[in-house]
Amino acid sequence: MIRKNSKLVHGIALASLIAAGSAGAAISDEGVVIGYLDDMNGTYSDLAGPAGRVAIEMAIEDFGKTVKGKPVTLISADHRNDPATGSSIAREWLDQESVDLITGLNSSSVAISVTRLVREKNGFAIVTTAASDSITGEHCTPNHFHWVYDTFAVSDPAARAIVEQGGDTWFMLSADYAFGHSMEAAVEKAVSESGGTLAGKARHPFPSSDFSSYILQAQSSGAKVIGLASAGTDLVNAINTASQFGVVESGQSLASLMVFITDMKAIGLDKAKGTKFVTGWYWDMDEQSREWAKRFHDRVGRMPTMVQAGNYSAVTSYLKAVEATGSDDPKVIREYMMANPIDDFFSRNGRVREDGRMVHDMYLAEVKSPEESAGEWDLYKILATIPAEEAFRPLSASKCELVKN
Amino acid sequence: MTMIFGVPLMAFMGQLMLGLINGAFYALLSLGLAVIFGLLKIVNFAHGAQYMLGAFVALLGLEYLGINYWVALLVAPLVVGVLGVVIERLLLRRISDLDHLYGLLLTFGLALIFEGTLINLVGVSGSTYPITPALQGGTNLGFMYLPTYRAWVLVAALCVCFATWFIIERTRLGAYLRAGTENATLMKGFGVNVPLLITFTYGFGAALAAFAGVLAAPLYPVTPTMGANLLVVVFAVVVIGGMGSILGAIITGLLMGIIEGLTKIFYPEAANTIIFIVMAIVLMVRPAGLFGKEV
Prior knowledge:
- The structure holds two protein chains of two kinds.
- Chain A is α/β, with parallel strands linked by helices.
- Chain A has helices spanning about 5-20, 50-60, 85-95, 110-120, 150-165, 180-195, 210-220, 230-245, 260-265, 270, 285-300, 305-325, 330-340, 390, and strands at about 30-40, 65, 70-80, 100-105, 125, 145, 170-175, 195-205, 225-230, 255, 275-280, 350, 360, 360-365, 380-385.
- Chain A has two domains: about 5-150 and about 290-360, Rossmann fold (3-Layer(aba) Sandwich); about 150-280 and about 365-390, Response regulator (Rossmann fold, 3-Layer(aba) Sandwich).
- In chain A, strand 2 and strand 3 (about 70-80) form a beta hairpin.
- In chain A, helix 1 packs parallel to helix 3 and helix 8 packs parallel to helix 9.
- By secondary structure, chain B is mainly α.
- Chain B has a single domain (about 10-285), classed as ABC transporter involved in vitamin B12 uptake, BtuC (Orthogonal Bundle), CATH 1.10.3470.
- In chain B, about 70% of the residues lie in helices and about 5% in strands.
- Chain B has eleven helices and four strands.
- In chain B, strand 1 and strand 2 form a beta hairpin.
- Chains A and B meet through strand 8, helix 7, helix 8 and helix 9 of A and helix 1, helix 9 and helix 10 of B.
């Protein structure tokens, strides 16, 4: 909840925030300026946030800090999960700081608002953190890509798999804003198409600290599966509350649809074990990933989430495109990136589709039990790979205006 | 199955129970604020941070010193209470003759400092504090499964609220306190050490916040921002109850918990805002609050 103490204080905070965002930026038409706009302090700041900035710094350093002889600079700011704040920072970046690439954009409502602005100003953005699949659906633009995952890719395969295993009645508990609504819709569709039913649903304010009432409603509904479409501290709260109310002991199961490694660490293997979900990347999934993750861990002190890895991948791919085409014009970059596959430690079989969605292999994973875990961050086991072309919403079902259907 | 307003009776009673528990929690929190404002006329914006510090003392105490929950219930309020005393002595006393706005700004600034320091130290995700073994599990009441720990919170919060009310309204110490804030000069003339009373009161209010923090630690993740999120709601409760009224804070806290609980059944999207809607209505109809005295 945003503190609404007084307009004056809020105004001072906003002004100093914008000032802080521009401090240290080199005004350059002779270089590449990357702007990282994310939630640095709030509900979602651990899954991306300041550590996500480190991932981008690593990408710039590994690229040599220059592109075609010109410097690459990074600036960042905190949008506080507020679309108005995010848009005004983005506006200043595009008007005055010549920012060539805006990335991060945690919180779907901020992402949608900022990408609209980016289109208006003919800038370029790669959304790495936000979830809603409408970002490449009804809110697609020719000026942005969606890189790491989306609500469809994490919920549709997971929901179908769970219904197939017998969990055919669901109660959906979702965060009451763009991300939660997207996920609720995707799950409802997936569940009914695979033969299940929705026994009830509730939407909780974002963020919420007390989930006892909703968990009680979920228990009263008698559904076999309680689907959680919340993220970050909301998800941690919900699972903790469910554990206090003996949800799993009394026979229901929890489907956590939007999971980051930071959440599982916060909840603990004891309460989270057995949770099945879909992820875009896991640090321990193969040798390449481990190598990068270790470098990240040495700098930050913890293992990266798929979003932080995605930040590195997105920025590196962008810089490669600028290098190859010698231009930072959004149209030229877009064409290049769509024509060349994205294959790095983060993305396997990756390519950018015409709706701006970067599709890549996704993975069905399960949280290990404390006995199965051999180390502090040994939290998941990968059960299956979902191929890139199957994991995301098919173009034939797309609401994006860029897709010729 | 009997239905009330379209909701099964069992579910309805379960939600009422939860609302009551939350209400007891709000009552405890708003009590500390009401005590400090009612007696000292200071709007203590650091209250949320003091609540958070109480939870952190419990968490870090367990991690590094092996202090268990029951000991933390005593230690955390003590630690934060002493911190409160220090704050009052060093900072608040200097601005006591100025406009109340300065007290507000000072305590607000302190809250930001405490939160920021902790965010730097432990990050935002926070950690979970385990429920102590004696209070784990729950009982099936028929209409709901009631976790034992939540029942304990209800009992503890109500006891502390009652004890505080009793001290302030029915004991000599409380009488000195109330008199001292109404007419300090006259009290000093009677030989009562008024500044000491004021310092003690602020420390006590802070300790109440910290006690609520320890109660909350096993329920919600212990994060540096846990106080900020709750503080606005608690202020609204105090305003509805009447800024100076101790009993008002307690009863309003319980009432708001129940109203919020009912909102969660019928229209959950409004759960975060219903208390402010009630506050707006109360301010329009009875500006001094439900139990406040007209100033």
